Amino acid sequence: MQLWRAAPLFTAAEAHRAFTALREHAAALYAVHGTDHPLWSHVHRRGGSGGDPRDHIELPLHHQYTSTAAYMNLPAEARLICAGLHDAAVAYAEEALQHPCVLPAARQELLRDLGRRSVLRVLRYPAGSGCRPHVDPGVCTALLVGSAGGLEVNTTDALPPLSAARLGDYTGTVDGASSHAAVAAGPSVLDALPHWEPVVTAHAGEAAVMAGKTLEVVSGGALRGVLHRVRRDWATGVNGADAAAAEMRFNVLVELRPTNPKRWYAAAAAALTGAEVAQVTQVSPQPSHPSTLSPTLHQ
User: What is the mean pLDDT of the chain?
Assistant: First the structure.
């Protein structure tokens, strides 16, 4: 099972039309005014002082299922992309959950738990802004590589495995007790890791689908969440003739998240504890009859 893979979901023309529509409608999408606007509560600005500023529209995925007013405010060209990404994410999740290391309960029930917390997002990065190294919290994420380059994944084995014992930890950059120092030191430690590789696709219509933290949890670390980032210097790779594309980088993604993540963290922790107990029992079996005890213990 590949932890991430490219998926030929769209034609290059479809991707180009979607990004062009997002660029042309950016003011209407990201600069909404008035609480009565359907997108009012869904447009967010991240970064601020010292961070990487970027805007994003985040809609619970059920808006797509029911064609709400907020979802219908997205350009039709972008909605086509959202629908295809959703199908790709579900297909990846269905395949990944059949992995033999996945908890039986997750294999049977997790797909039905991917409800109201799953999201679709439309992000806008100004030139000079990127995204810190992180692992998405959900089961998996499907995304267009972006209207410009800059997306990279990390393939190093140096990262510590996710610790399923940290119940309900649904937000950190990297999990595991041995990674606390790296997280405390900030993204620069993760940026300095070896084996950062650009996500290269055959054309702009290909998407990337990658494992998230929840999949790592329910597989006992066998299917590790993919560490990825967006480089701040993405604009340097844009064709100089396309000034508009060099000003803003757009991206569209769908992330499948469980409704009750703590349930799966707890289930993974219980399975881990049970495995440890079984291992100890196998290594040091308890005697079944007093006559088998050491003479010292009879004294």
Answer: 81
Smallest CA-to-CA distance from 214 within 246, 258, 175 is with: 258
Which domain, by its residues, includes 140?
4-275
Which residue is associated with the tokens 């009750």?
260
Whether residue 267 is contained in a domain is answered as yes
Q: Looking at the domain assignment, is residue 18 inside a domain?
A: yes
Q: Which two tokens stand for residue 228?
A: 């990825």
Look up the pTM and report it.
0.81
pLDDT in tens, 50-99: 567 889 999 999 898 888 999 999 999 999 999 999 999 999 999 999 99
**Token match 């649904």: residue?**
170
- Which amino acid is it at 276? E
CB of 149 closer than 8 Å to CB of 234: yes
How far is Cα 222 from Cα 193, in angstroms, rounded to an integer? Answer: 21
Gyration radius of the chain over CA positions: 22
Q: How many domains does the structure of the chain reveal?
A: 1
Is pLDDT of 186 > 70?
no
Is residue 292 domain-resident? no
Instruction: Give CA angle at 58 (54, 64), nearest 5°.
Output: 145
Residue of 15, 154, 29, 36 lying closest to 80 (CA atoms)? 15
The tokens for 155 are: 């393939």
**Residue 268: inside a domain, yes or no?**
yes
